[in-house]
Amino acid sequence: MKKYKLLILIILCVSIILVVSIPNKSVDKYLKRNHSDLNLADEHDFSGLEILSKDIKDKKIILAGELHNLAENHIVELKLLKYLQKEIGVNYYLAEVGYADAYFLNKYLESGDETVLKNYFNIYKNQKYYTEEQYNFYTNMYKHNQTLPKEKQIKVIGVDIESKVTYDYILDVIKDKENITNELKVLMNKLKEFNYNSRESYKNILKVLNNLTEDIKLNEEKYKNIFKKDFEEFKLVLKNLKDFSTACTGNTIYDNVRDKYIYENFKVIDSKLENAVYFGQWGYFHVFQDTFYSNIDMSDMNYFSSLLNKDEKYRGKILSINYGYYFEEPQLGHGYSYIDENLFKDYLNSDSKATIFSLNNRKSPFKKKTINPFSTNAVDYKNNPTTKYFQYLILIRNSEKSKIVM
User: Fold this and answer.
1) Which range marks the domain in which residue 260 is found?
2) E strands of 67-148, at which residues?
3) Residue 172 and residue 392: Cα distance in Å, rounded?
4) In this structure, are 317 and 395 located in the same domain?
5) Do 267 and 303 fall within a single domain?
6) How far is residue 246 from each of residues 184, 236, 240, 258, 282, measured CA to CA in Å?
7) What does the pLDDT look like over 173-214, one tens digit per residue?
8) Closest listed residue to residue 259, CA positions, set 270, 243, 275, 245
9) Burial class (CB in 10 A: 0-12, 13-18, 19+), 57
């Protein structure tokens, strides 16, 4: 009887091992056939990126998702931008910044005057998202543009809600400084002393913005004379600032509110552009193409790509590439996009700094069910296939931290 029980136990253990290992073997086999190493040492070497070719031809928006403040992000970003410009004619870089930010970035790209870029980055001095690597990304974009005909040069589009640069933007676009209105003066004074860490500041500036908006309705011609050709864009920046302040004072989850405004801004700007093809690199969650449950916010989340994908105009026109990270040494900070080391065990010690994986090729297990490629459960995929959220993954190994502009 004991031997019989032991035999049953052995059979049960073997069965469990087989049930667990067979799917893993299927994933291992698939990944082995659907990956390419990237050469980050040479920005002109696009080998490996041809893995994207079958999926990019009919796409309007390609978004990459990063964990902020890692140096290699911007090397991959530049390589993707150049490759996509060459292959599908990307002509707009969709930046995770507001319209006013994009104004200064385009001013630099048009002139090549690095004073403009330096002054812009100085506005955000000592802020963690403004780094030397990001600065170099824009100087490299300018250099790349100089190799292209004027009509093919890449411009920056800013669809995020506004932040610190609004004061400098308004100051720069005012054409008639002698006749600015009292309501505009009040806003400028508020912005000059604005405390971006104070909820009360946002509440106060909302009142000022409402007063200014009403005055513009009553005296539109006066404001058209003040801002000339920049009048419509000025109104967009005001709306953006209002949306930003609303997002910072409301009781709903900030990212859901913020990304709703981002989506609305994108629709407005895209409606004014012809034959626009976009590439952008945003924070990790923004590129998820469907609703997921966040175990961080304890809520359903709809980020920018998800809202776009629910819009009939853009559905099927978006490609999402998420970045996953591997570090030999333990790292401090958010680890929600650290790679699942067991799933990608065969790729952790490659000589290449980065490897791209197609998750949506023929016979992909990632198309059939949820396979979380990351090491944490920050995201609940609601039992959907992984590829419903993103279709490619780039593994970046041992990235250095970015250097903050001081």
Assistant:
1) 91-276
2) 92-98
3) 41
4) yes
5) no
6) 20, 15, 10, 9, 22
7) 999 889 999 999 999 999 999 988 889 999 999 999 999 999
8) 243
9) exposed
Whether residue 230 is found in the same domain as residue 288: no
Count of Cβ atoms closer than 10 Å to residue 55 Cβ: 16
What's the confidence (pLDDT) of residue 395?
A: 98
Task: Look at phi and psi of residue 275 and say left if phi exceeds 0, alpha if psi is from -120 to 50, else beta.
Answer: left
> Residue with structure tokens 């002109």?
44
Q: What is the CATH number of the domain that holds 48?
A: 3.40.1660
Choose one of 276, 303, 322: the last residue of a domain.
Answer: 276
How does pLDDT run across 251-309, given as a tens digit for each residue?
888 999 999 999 999 999 999 999 999 999 999 999 999 999 999 999 999 999 999 99
The 10s digit of each residue's pLDDT in 76-111 is 999 999 999 999 999 999 999 999 999 999 999 999
- For residues 317 and 60, the answer to whether their CB atoms sit within 8 Å is yes
pLDDT band of 405, cuts 50, 70, 90: confident
How sure is the predictor about 14, in pLDDT bands with cuts at 50, 70 and 90? very low
CA dihedral sign, ordered 106, 169, 244, 122: positive
Domain boundary among 226, 241, 276: 276
Cα 250 to Cα 163, 203, 257: the distances in Å are: 17, 10, 9
Query: Tokens at residue 220, please?
Result: 């539109």
Is residue 257 a part of any domain in this protein?
yes
In this predicted model, what pLDDT tens digit does every residue of 227-241 receive, in sequence order? 999 999 999 999 999
Same domain, 267 and 152: yes
Residue 205 and residue 298 share a domain: no
Q: Do residues 151 and 43 both lie within one domain? A: no
Distance CA 368, CA 386 (A): 8
> What is the number of domains present in the chain?
2
3-state secondary structure of 390: coil
* Beta pairing class for 292-294 and 379-380: antiparallel
Task: Map residue 281 onto helix, strand or coil.
Answer: strand
| 48 domain residue, yes or no | yes
